[in-house]
Write a structure and sequence with these properties.
Number of helices: 11
Order of helices and strands: HEEEHHHEHHEEHEEEEEHEEEHHH
Helix content: 25-40%
Largest sheet: 6 strands, mixed
Number of strands: 14
Structural class: alpha+beta
Strand content: 15-25%
C-alpha cells in the first residue's frame, strides 16, 4: 500500500500540474524514466548461499538472505524407474570417461519443466508489522513470489536429479520504516541476492542420491552468466494524465492517477549469438498488478482528473486505460528500454 504524505490541497494541485506538463517537471528534477540513486552490496551474510543489501536515497534499506536445502521430491518417479535407468547411468559413466558428455548441460536439459512452485518460499519482515500474517506483509510477499514462480527457469534450476531438489528460502528484511511503497526496494534487493547465490556443484549422476563437491570455490552460481537468464524484478510505474513515471517518490505517489507493479524476466537462452558475440537480453512480461493510488483512498474522487473551480485537485474515478498500460509495458520490454537499463545496472553491482 502506497504511504500517504501530508501535503496541503494547494501543494497537491501544484505537484499534479507540474507532473502533467509536457515535458513534465518532477520534484527532484529527474526525467520520467530516471531512478533515484541507490547503494548496494552483495555477499554480506556469511551463513547464506547468497545475500544482498540495498539502500535507496530516501533512506529505505533492505537486506535479503537466500538459503538452500536438499529435499527429496515426493511422488516424482517410482522405484522401478530408477532400476530402468541403471544401464543409462553406465553409459553416462563411459561418456564422462571419454570426455564426450557435458554433465552440466545434460542436467540442464533434463531439468526442463520439472521444477515446482512449492520449492520457492518467500518471507517478508517489516518494522511496525509484528505479525507474519498481516495483510500488507502477506500481500508484498505474494507479489514478490509470483514473479519468481512465473520465471520457470528458476524452478527448473532447483532440480538436482530424479527424486531430489533444492528448496530455496528467501528471507527479506526491511530495516527502516517504508518512506514510500517498498515493493521496488524489496524486489531489486531480492534480484541481487539471487544473482549472488551459489549452490554446491553436484558430482553424482541425476539418477543417484545427490553428492556434492565440498569445495566452496567450485560452487556453481544459481544463474549462469553464459545464459541470458537473470532473476525477475518488479518495477513500480505510475501515471499522471498521459505522462508515465518510473520509480515514483512518496510525494509523486500522492497525486498518481494510476499505479502499476510490472514484473519482467529474461527468456533464458544463450547470452551469445551464433558468432560468439554478446547479444541483447530478451525480456518478457511475467506479472502485472494495478495498485490503488493513495489519493483515491483519502479524498473524494471526481469525474475527471482535474482541478475544480477553487484550485483543489481531486483524483478521477475509474481505472487505468489499456493503452496506458500497454505503453508502460512497451517502455520496459523494448530493446534499449527501461528494463534493459535496470538489468545492466544491477548486473554491474553483482560483478563489482
Amino acid at each position: 500500500m502506497p504511504t500517504s504524505t501530508l501535503l496541503s490541497p494547494s501543494e497537491l494541485a501544484y505537484l499534479h500540474s507540474s507532473l502533467s506538463l509536457d515535458p513534465p517537471i518532477r520534484p527532484d528534477a529527474r526525467s520520467p524514466t530516471s531512478f533515484r540513486p541507490l547503494v548496494a552490496e552483495t555477499d554480506l551474510l556469511p551463513t547464506t548461499n547468497g545475500s544482498a543489501r540495498l539502500c535507496f536515497a530516501d533512506g529505505s534499506e533492505a537486506i535479503v538472505g537466500v538459503k538452500a536445502e536438499v529435499e527429496r521430491t515426493t511422488g516424482s518417479k517410482t522405484v522401478g524407474y530408477y532400476a530402468d535407468q541403471a544401464n543409462r547411468g553406465k553409459d553416462e559413466d563411459t561418456k564422462m570417461q571419454s570426455g564426450e558428455a557435458d554433465m552440466d548441460e545434460e542436467r540442464r536439459q533434463q531439468a526442463r519443466g520439472k521444477g515446482q512452485d512449492s520449492w520457492i518460499e518467500v518471507t517478508v519482515d517489516m518494522p511496525g508489522f509484528g505479525r507474519d500474517d498481516d495483510g500488507v506483509v502477506v500481500f508484498l510477499g505474494q507479489m514478490l513470489r509470483e514473479g519468481l514462480v512465473a520465471d520457470r527457469g528458476l524452478r527448473d534450476r532447483l532440480w538436482i536429479g530424479w527424486g531430489w531438489h533444492w528448496r530455496v528460502y528467501i528471507d527479506i528484511l526491511l530495516l527502516t520504516a517504508p518512506n514510500s511503497y517498498p515493493l521496488p526496494l524489496l524486489s531489486l534487493a531480492t534480484h541481487l541476492a539471487l544473482l549472488a547465490t551459489r549452490l554446491p556443484a553436484p558430482i553424482s549422476r541425476i539418477d543417484e542420491d545427490p553428492l556434492f563437491n565440498d569445495d566452496w570455490d567450485a560452487a556453481q552460481p544459481l544463474y549462469d552468466s553464459n545464459y541470458d537468464h537473470r532473476p525477475p524484478f518488479t518495477l513500480l510505474v505510475m501515471s499522471v494524465g498521459d505522462n508515465i513515471f518510473f520509480d515514483p517518490a512518496r510525494e509523486e505517489l500522492a497525486v498518481a492517477g494510476a499505479i502499476c507493479a510490472i514484473t519482467v524476466g529474461t527468456d533464458g537462452s544463450s547470452s551469445y549469438n551464433a558468432a560468439g558475440q554478446p547479444k541483447r537480453p530478451e525480456l518478457r512480461l511475467l506479472a502485472l498488478r494495478t495498485i490503488d493510488p493513495p489519493a483515491r483512498l483519502a479524498a473524494a474522487a471526481s469525474a475527471t482528473d482535474e482541478e475544480d473551480d477553487q484550485g483543489v485537485w481531486r483524483p478521477a474515478r475509474g481505472g487505468i486505460k489499456r493503452s496506458l498500460v500497454g505503453k508502460m509495458v512497451k517502455m520496459i520490454l523494448e530493446p534499449g528500454g527501461v528494463g534493459e537499463e535496470v538489468m545492466k545496472g544491477l548486473q554491474g553491482f553483482s560483478e563489482g
